[in-house]
Amino acid sequence: MVLRRQIESALYTSVRCGETLGLSGLTSSIGTVGDAYDNALAETTIGLYKTEAVREDSPFRIGPLTRLGDVEYLTSRWVHWYNTSRLMHRLGRIPPVEAEQNYYTQHVPTLVEAHQ
């Protein structure tokens, strides 16, 4: 016998929730019941942000976070680092911006020739 809360499988996929969204002109962003991949990317990125940027010993922090501006500044510094400077293992331990430059260096001449 398996015991579980009744609300687990229907919390966000209930008919009433869908109807309420529809009446408000909104559509749901969730998949089928039991689909575990709906929020995986967002949860992973939020986890990285909390671990790398928000914690007290983070190199992106400059003092305590007391104002919204402190969080915005911290976030902009982290996002800039994340998109341009972090070393990515699957890219050969180079930053994403360098991988993008390499890609366009190799492929743009081919694309230009194809359109002539």
Automatic annotation (TrEMBL):
The taxonomy runs: Bacteria, Bacillati, Actinomycetota, Actinomycetes, Mycobacteriales
Q: In what residue span(s) does the Integrase catalytic domain sit? A: 25-96
UniProt name for this protein: Integrase-like protein
Q: Which Pfam families match?
A: rve_3
Biological process (GO), any one: DNA integration
Q: Which domain of life is it from?
A: Bacteria
Record InterPro entries: Integrase_cat-core (IPR001584), RNaseH-like_sf (IPR012337)
